[in-house]
Amino acid sequence: xxxxxxxxxxxxxxxxxxxxxxxxxxxxxxxxxxxxxxxxxxxxxxxxxxxxxxxxxxxxxxxxxxxxxxxxxxxxxxxxxxxxxxxxxxxxxxxxxxxxxxxxxxxxxxxxxxxxxxxxxxxxxxxxxxxxxxxxxxxxxxxxxxxxxxxxxxxxxxxxxxxxxxxxxxxxxxxxxxxxxxxxx
Length: 185
Hints:
By secondary structure, this protein is mainly β. 3% of the residues lie in helices and 52% in strands. The chain has one helix and 19 strands. The strands form two sheets. Strands 1, 3, 5, 7, 8, 10, 11, 13, 14, 16, 17, 18 and 19 form a 13-stranded mixed sheet that branches. A hairpin with a 2-residue loop joins strand 18 and strand 19 (179-184). The longest helix has 5 residues, at 160-164. The radius of gyration is 16 Å and the shape is globular. The protein starts with a strand and ends with a strand.
């Protein structure tokens, strides 16, 4: 519980929450509206991972609001999202999985009010459920992403054909009420 926020300032350019260990959110709010930092960073952003160290984050429930940068799962980061809301009100992604980041999304909402909800450029991303919205799309798969698998969820401003590219055998993307919905056959 509680609210994590940060003040904007000349020398205050760091992230609201940065995890280099093991962290679990079971509620609470994270706010970063300073126009510079990420609301949440899991793993090593801009600095090398020290050895084989890992950063592990589990989100069971959270309300994140950010501008312009939402949540970034970075080098050495392992993220499991089971619920909650990650929202970027201006700028870019609600969630960016990057570098050697591994992300599993089982539920919740990821929203970008101005761009695309999720960017995947990491080692692995598996989406099993959730609702993803953005005016320019829900999922952007970077050309350097290694393994993107979609087994569930509802996606705004995507095509059935695009989403089907990331569905394994036994899963299908269909259009329903203006959203592309992925489900098991």
